[in-house]
User: Fold this.
Amino acid sequence: MSSDLLDKGYEPHDVEKRWYDFWEKESLFAANEEQSAQQCYSIVIPPPNVTGVLHMGHALNNTLQDILCRYRRLRGDNVLWMPGTDHAGIATQNVVEKDLAGKGMDRYQLGRLRKARQLDLHVSTKDRRITLDLRPKIVIAPRAQ
Assistant:
């Protein structure tokens, strides 16, 4: 399409990606320590358990936190919204052990070092997924033909 013509409909994917990349590059999501005259406001996202994936409860909680952070930023406050992540706790160990059992193994066969590596692999995989899921996503229904 010619650059001087508008598209028939608004296609947010490209626009939103361009703005998101700009906000990240300019560190607009970060709180500014130098602006001490501003009132500080922060929320730490409670860490989702790394045994699974995010669900509707997380979506509701994060939506409410997002609203509060945007409101405070619009008021001129110095806002930080910090995602938290879980560590390899007992629930994570149970999930890894169930995975091992499905392969006909148990933690004693693995030994301490290999078991620790399995836990680390599980946590890093799930943690990365959760952290990416916490980033804003644009979900657009397919356009009717």
Notes: Residues 12-134 form one domain. The two ends are 19 Å apart (CA to CA). The longest strand covers residues 40-45.
